[in-house]
Q: What sequence folds into this?
């Protein structure tokens, strides 16, 4: 086909009004059919490069619009050559790289949820730490792992793991047969790459929701407040106009963690969630009370709230019989101590 008249839609077997999802589905289907590690024919190698270039152009709105209006020549003039294998790796969590580079492996997502089995005879474990910011925005983690082969020779493999926005700190990547040789069982162990979420200065995460403590004054608790929060790469202005009672928590919708984009593992069939969806932000409000209140202010407050002060000077005779009370602890601290004691008594401390 003449490059100047190349029909990218025809290359992928699509109509010109194909949706973004249809373009990606069709590219995935064809890419698996003619990937050079699956199909060794020269024709397949050429087709793999062509469909990769077609997808690279049609998957980008600006390039697609320019191509639709002016044709292939308008988008191919100064366009760098597409690395078809790298494009394939970045989109699909399938490892064909053993044929290409024996020591470098790419994974586009984690693939394991739930409790990781504790069995060093069958599994090797490698932990990768992630900040909450990295799990919020997504990132790539590169690491190297050393193992022994059947002849007990040391080998080192490098890995690149793509962390998608919204990934859980409890997710993992399971790689079959990559954990080194076990001479007792005479087989290779599987490798677990386990994510570990580092503590954040402000936030605590529960699934897709984020929790954060906020301190407000007594005046703000009575009359409402506005606060500005530093929230990753943006500022969030929060307003609340009602009375705040002790131990209250507020909810700000759609300001939690991104809800992770998911895909099926069936070839040629992709189901994606809306990546613009987020969990919620939960504000745990702490009311800052004054250390003391003067006599005049106390009388004014009693008038405002139409209440009578229970004052010890009302009856001097009964006052002499009063038993003084003193500050002990905050209720929160006592609850934490009780929970800690219960966990220690059961021998099951939360991680």
A:
């Amino acid at each position: 086909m003449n490059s100047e008249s190349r029909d990218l839609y025809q290359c992928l077997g699509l109509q010109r009004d194909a949706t973004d999802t249809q373009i990606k589905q069709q590219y995935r289907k064809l890419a698996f059919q003619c990937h050079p590690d699956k199909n060794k024919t020269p024709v397949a190698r050429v087709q793999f490069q062509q469909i990769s270039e077609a997808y690279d152009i049609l998957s980008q709105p600006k390039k697609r619009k320019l191509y639709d209006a002016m044709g292939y020549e308008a988008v191919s003039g100064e366009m760098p050559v597409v690395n078809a294998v790298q494009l394939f790796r970045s989109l699909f969590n399938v490892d064909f790289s053993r044929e290409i580079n024996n020591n470098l492996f790419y994974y586009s997502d984690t693939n394991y949820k739930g409790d990781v089995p504790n069995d060093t005879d069958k599994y090797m474990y490698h932990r990768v730490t992630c900040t909450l910011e990295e799990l919020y925005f997504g990132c790539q983690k590169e690491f190297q792992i050393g193992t022994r082969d059947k002849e007990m020779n040391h080998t080192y493999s490098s890995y690149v793991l793509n962390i998608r926005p919204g990934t859980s700190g409890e997710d993992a990547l399971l790689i079959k047969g990559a954990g080194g040789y076990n001479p007792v069982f005479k087989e290779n162990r599987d490798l677990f790459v386990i994510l570990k979420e580092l503590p954040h200065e402000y936030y605590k995460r529960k699934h897709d929701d984020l929790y954060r403590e906020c301190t407000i004054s007594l005046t703000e608790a009575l009359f409402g407040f506005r606060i500005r929060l530093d929230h990753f790469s943006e500022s969030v202005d929060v307003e609340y106009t009602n009375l705040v009672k002790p131990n209250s928590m507020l909810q700000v919708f759609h300001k939690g963690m991104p809800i992770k984009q998911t895909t099926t593992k069936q070839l040629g069939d992709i189901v994606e969630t809306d990546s613009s969806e987020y969990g919620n932000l939960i504000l745990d409000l702490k009311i800052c009370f004054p250390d003391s209140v003067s006599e005049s202010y106390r009388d004014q407050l009693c008038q405002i709230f139409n209440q009578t002060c229970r004052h010890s000077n009302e009856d001097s005779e009964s006052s002499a019989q009063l038993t003084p009370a003193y500050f002990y602890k905050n209720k929160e601290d006592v609850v934490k101590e009780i929970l800690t004691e219960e966990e220690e008594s059961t021998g099951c401390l939360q991680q």
The longest strand covers residues 139-148. The chain has three domains: 3-91, 97-197, 203-313. Residues 37 and 99 are 7 Å apart (CA to CA).
